[in-house]
Amino acid sequence: METMSPRPAVWSQDKMASEKRDVWTALKRGFCGRCPRCGEGKLFRAFLKVDQACSACGQDFTPHRADDLPAYLVIVMVGHIVVPLALMIETAYSPPIALQLALYLPLTFVASLALLQPVKGAVVAVQWALRMHGFDEGNPEP
Q1: What digits encode the pLDDT tens for the residues 18-63?
Q2: Is 60 exceeded by the pLDDT of residue 97?
Q3: Does residue 47 fall inside a structural domain?
Q4: What is the mean pLDDT of residues 128-134?
Q5: Is residue 8, in this structure, part of any structural domain at all?
Q6: At what angle do helices 97-129 and 69-93 cross, to 10 degrees?
Q7: Reduced 3-state DSSP string for 40-79
Q8: Considering all CA atoms of the chain, what is the largest pairwise distance in Å, rounded to the nearest integer?
Q9: What are the two backbone dihedrals, phi and then psi, of residue 93, each rounded to the nearest 5 degrees?
Q10: Which domain, by its residues, includes 53?
Q11: 101 pLDDT above the threshold of 70
Q12: Which of 13, 60, 104, 125 could cysteine-pair with 26, CB 3.0–4.6 Å?
């Protein structure tokens, strides 16, 4: 006896939603902590907790998969700011190690905290704009 399995859903670009999603606009809105779709509602409900849905337009944010990418991007960005600064100060003035630690550690900590939420918002917004990870209503795969 043969069992019939349901035919798998096939995704094609013809089935894409007609809504145009501009990556740069979404990136700016996400960086500011706003909904990438409307720019009105908040993207975060806590410091790094993405809200379930936009309070203004109802866009669902549950499919986002930011994971560790924002932290990696912040490390690269802060490193590109602090390391050249430390090298320039070291070669020009040669301050004591204790002074360098007193300057660079807090600077690195504050810059990382300041950039973490905007970078995570930008990552979620880019995922929305590129229809990644369930942000595409026409994609049959979860």
Answers
A1: 578 999 999 999 999 999 999 999 999 999 999 999 999 999 999 9
A2: yes
A3: yes
A4: 89
A5: no
A6: 150
A7: CCECECCCCCECCECCCCCCECCCCCCCCHHHHHHHHHHH
A8: 84
A9: -120, -25
A10: 21-129
A11: yes
A12: 125
Ranked by mean pLDDT, which of 10-19, 57-66, 105-114 comes out on top? Answer: 105-114
Residue 19: predicted pLDDT:
75
Instruction: Give burial (CB, 10 Å; 0-12/13-18/19+) of 69.
Output: middle
Tokens representing residue 31 in the block: 């960086």
Three-state secondary structure call for residue 112:
helix
Residue 140 lies inside a defined structural domain of this protein: no
**pLDDT value of residue 141:** 54
Q: Give phi and psi for 120, each to the nearest 5.
A: -65, -40
Is 4 inside a domain boundary? no
Query: Residue 92 is encoded by which pair of tokens?
Result: 């020009």
pTM assigned to the model: 0.83
Q: Which of 34-49 are b and which e, b meaning 16 or more Cβ less than 10 Å from the residue's Cβ?
A: bbbbebebebbeeeee
Nearest to 120 by CA among 55, 52, 47: 47
Question: Do 119 and 73 meet the contact criterion of CB atoms below 8 Å apart?
Answer: yes
List of long-range contacts for 103-111, beta carbons under 8 Å, 24+ apart = 107/82, 108/78, 108/82, 111/78, 111/81, 111/82
